[in-house]
Amino acid sequence: MPDWLDYQKLAASIYSDFEKNAVVVHDDKVRGIDSGIDRQIDVSIRTAVAGHEILIIVQAKDLGRPADVNVVGEFKAVIEDVRAAKGVLICSGGFTEAALSYAKGLNIDLCTVHDAQTRKWAVDLRIPLLWVETTGNIEVEIEAVSDMVSHEEPTLGRDPAKWTFSLNGGNALTTLADLLTKAWNSDPANQASGMSHRLELAQPGMRLIMSGSYSIPVHSMVCSYTVQRTEWLGTFTFSSCRGIFNRGTGTMLTRIALTDKDIPLKRDPSWVEVQDPQAVLANSTLMIRVDRGIGPDSFTFNRGEIGVEDGS
Questions:
Q1: Could you give all domains of the chain from N- to C-terminal order, each with its CATH number?
Q2: What percent of the chain is predicted at pLDDT more than 90?
Q3: How far apart are CA 117 and CA 95, in angstroms?
Q4: Kind of pairing between the strands at 207-209 and 215-236
Q5: Predicted TM-score (pTM) above 0.85
Q6: Beta bridge pairs of residue 52
């Protein structure tokens, strides 16, 4: 299939998506009033306004150069002949400045169509993104006193985030990272920046598992931390994005399908740190905010220290 035919069909498909109440026909024939002959129309759009049928005609050209005033003039003659209420001239190569100026007074929109999944006619539509990262200095102090004699060697790992605790009489197991995550997300106040926080993580009947069958009761487990929130301004694009860009007005009618795969998973080094996020949000009509959530893998500890006191 030649590229020019693909381009016409893409235009027809996009208009069909946006104009659900209209009749969109690709490669239509419309009888000219003055010429008395059937005019070939790349895409015709028929709709009704207040009971009156409105005809819009679209000409789509896949050109390797910008369309000039001659192309606009030829399309103007077709619009007048078929008595169309509106004409849309679409050209993949864009338009000359003279063509843009000429079309303004003729009720002709000069546009390009784009589809992110079609490489030749894709547009790099970048959407602003505010990336939020929350960090903090965390200290956990655990008070646990043995209530049994064991000949097993304690095997606590070097990473306290992975230390395991038993709950409900040993019917449930959890880790320090899981406990921190649950406490952190239980109340937005726990995430307030610029202040110190103190959370008690111990629960009745909680025991710290020291080895396979050896555990000790936890009397207290206090988490102390401060929160720092840093935000960066960046952009990202969509894998599914198609629409019509009006070159005369600089506006784009587009349909975007946002998926999990489109959202960045990590911060791009080129993004700029923002000092006043509220001002950025206030000055943007469209912005995606990505607040990096806190999960069990968000907590890391430099070291864990175990102190043993002889009760005798």
A1: 3-121 (3.40.1350.10), 123-237+258-304 (no CATH)
A2: 37
A3: 23
A4: antiparallel
A5: no
A6: 49
